[in-house]
Structure formats: structure tokens, C-alpha cells
Amino acid sequence: MKRTGILFFPAFDWSLGDSHPEREERLLYTQEQLFEEGVLDLPQIKQYSPRVASLKDVLRTQALFPNPEDHRSGLDPHLISAGSSLLLGEAQVKGEIHNGFVMARPPGHHSGATVWGNRGFCSLNNEAILVNYLRAGFGKKKIAIVDTDVHHGDGTQDIFYHDPNVLFISLHQDGRTLYPGSGFVNEKGGFNAWDQTLNIPLPPGTGDEGYHYVLENWVLPRLQAFAPDIIINSAGQDNHFTDPLASMNLTAAGYGRISELLQPDLAVLEGGYSIEGALPYVNLAILLALAGEDYHHVREPQKIKRNTVTLAALKPYIQELKRQQEAAKPSLTFQSKPFFPSGNWIYSPHSVYYDTEGFQETRHDYVRECSDCGGTVYIESRKYTEKSILVRIPFQACSSCEQAGYDLWEHLQNSKESFSYGFLQNQLHDTHYVWNRKEGLRKF
């Protein structure tokens, strides 16, 4: 029997306000619906209890600025949400389950490589932390993430933008019409991982037929060509036609078909804020599809009121998107600092707005050009006047990029440059160090 794992974590003690859409009721109505339908009594369904991720699990993937301990007081629910993904992911790779659905909150896909606080309701990136946990602990080499949340998964993209062994695909409402305003077809990955990011911005009003067409004719062929060891679905549910934050037209049964087409090894809950009108039915349809049961009878109580883009109108739009995506070329700026090790360093400045907390992070990213690995990454990150630095030695780093990371790290510890916090993220050997002038060096 092929088993499907399920894990609930409603995070009773975390919300952004009693009337905010990101609150515990997002999952409580789903639990009631699944109990009423008797789905949890199906013989192939196996329930799991949550667990807590460690700080090392997080730091393998994300730098918590200016200091990991500064985040401790507010991280507990986020660590449990991330840990729940790790638990079910581990169960899948060990063969305990065929696939699984992590119904946990808070969500995570807007949280990027550097973290100063919460943005887009996200503090830790559950799927990204899971990906690197499976790589470090279980030897997974190639992993695909398909993000079907209505918002672009900009945090996940940021984390893996320079990683040639992670394929990130995001289908989302066009960023010109919705937060976070990114996710366009020319965003195809860093130079060392070019074409390993695929963004498909869809027009408002795209419904079931349109989504399924894009999956069958663009996403699935791309997945087949990449041949990943594991597929993770960032299963946002805010594409539903009743969601208050977006303008798409998916139905619960349409979501079931998405799961049936993707056949993810693991689905991880992301957004979705129609708490009573959509989530109980969408979650039910997804779980039924994962478990190999019929989901077509699942019907939400409301009817679609806004106009849906017809497939005839969508097809030329998608064809033009594909043409633009295939034609896009890297736009490179080579720049380095006097203390950088030898090699060509590609520079990309950008800023990140933390909408939940109302401040701007300024980033200066550098990656070492390399044909053998993802390349050494050096990031200067600033919040107001406070500057922190991340040095990353990537998974499967070549010897030159590994040494470049050590040289950068040694220079930073001995330099007179003023920064609050320095972090060495050595993914190659799964060892991670924090350093500042006051406390010295600590290992995680």
C-alpha cells in the first residue's frame, strides 16, 4: 500500500492579529472538514506529530541577522513549522510514506537567504530548509521545487538562485498586479545556475483550465528534463476564486488536478486566506489526490463571480511568455573588492522590503563565476546602519570555490571593516560559524 503522510500544526500561539487572515483558523476548519469526510480513517493515510527544527537546520540555508539569538523569542512557531517539513520529508525519503502533505503554519516562501525579520507573513523558509536538510543528511543531489502559491516565491528563488542542482519553478499571478512585484520570465537564475529558475507570471482570472494547460505544456516537460530526485510543491492555496488577497480563479477540484499532475513527493502548505470558503475544500482535494482517491466530487459552497480567462485567450499569452523566457540572456556586472580571492565575481545589488515590519534591507551580492559548482557567495546586508555579512561555500563546491570561501572568511575576521555579524555558511561540510568582535567565533 502506498501511504500518504499528513501533519497538522495550526500554531495556536502565533498570528498577525485576531482579524488577520494569517491565523490559526486557516487549519482548524480544514481539520474539521477532514474529520467529517472520514479521510483520516483511510488505510493509506498516516498521521504524524510536529517536531522542532534546530537552529543549525535553519543556518544551513538562511542567515539570521544581525545575530541568531536575536530572533529566539519569536521563532518558536516558525521552527515547528520548518521542523514539521523536515519530519515528513525524512519519512518520505526513508520510504515510510509514498508522499505527504505538511499542513503547517506559519508559511515561509517569502523568506530569503538573509533574514532580518518577517516579510509576507514569513520568517523561515520551510521548503528551502527541507531541501538542504535532505541534501546534507540523505545525499539528495537534484531537487525540484514547484511553487503554486498565487504570490511569487521570491524568498525561495533568492536562496537557490545560484544553485545549479535545484530547479525552482513558480506559477503565480503577474507581479505587476500583486505582491511582491517580482517573478518575471527574465529571472532565470544566477550565471552559474542559469535557466534553473523558471517563472511563469499568469494574468488575473486564470482558472483551472489555464493552470492545467501550463502545467502539462511547460512545467511537466521541464521537470522531466531535469529528472529530480525529489519534487516539493509549495502548495499555496490563494489562487482560489474566493481568496481575499488575490484575483485568480482556481477551484478546489482544480487544485486536486494540480496535485495529480505534479505528483509531488511532498506538498508543503503556503498561503491561502479564504479560511472558510476555500481552505477546507482545497486541502481536502489535495490530500485526496495525493492519496490516490477521487477528488472530483469536492465542491466549495460559493460560485465563481469574476471573469475567467479563456484557454483560447491564454494560449497566445503563454506562447509569448515562453518566447521571452527562451530569449532572455544573463545581464552581468563583474565587480570585486580588493580582498576578494582570484576569479571573476558577478555583482548584483538589490533591496528587500519587509512589509510586515516596515523596513528595507539593502543587499550587495557577489558570486564567484565557476563552471564546476554554484560558486562562492559573498553578501553584504544592511538594515538601517547595521551591516552583516554572509559567506557561503555551496554544496558540491569545487576546491577553488571552497578555498575562496575560507580566504574571505579569514580576511573578515582579521579586517578592520565594521560589521555587526559575520556568518560562514559552509554547506559543503555542513559546518556553520558566527563571528563578531565582541563575542568571537561560535560554531553551529
Biggest sheet architecture: 8 strands, parallel
Low-pLDDT ranges: none
Main sheet: strand order = 2-1-4-10-9-6-7-8
- H/E element order: EHEHEHEEHEHEEHEHEHHEEEEHEEE
Q: Share of helix among residues?
A: 25-40%
Describe the fold and architecture.
This protein starts with a strand and ends with a strand. The chain is globular, with a radius of gyration of 21 Å. The protein has 444 residues and is α/β, with parallel strands linked by helices. The protein has helices at residues 25-37, 55-59, 72-93, 126-138, 154-160, 208-226, 252-262, 279-290, 311-327, 399-414; strands spanning 4-9, 45-48, 63-64, 99-104, 114-115, 143-147, 166-173, 197-202, 230-235, 266-269, 345-354, 359-368, 377-383, 386-393, 421-426, 431-436, 440-443. The protein has 10 helices and 17 strands. An 8-stranded parallel sheet has the order 2-1-4-10-9-6-7-8, with helices on both faces. A 7-stranded mixed sheet has the order 11-12-13-14-15-16-17, with helices on one face. Strand 14, helix 10 and strand 15 (421-426) form a beta-alpha-beta unit.
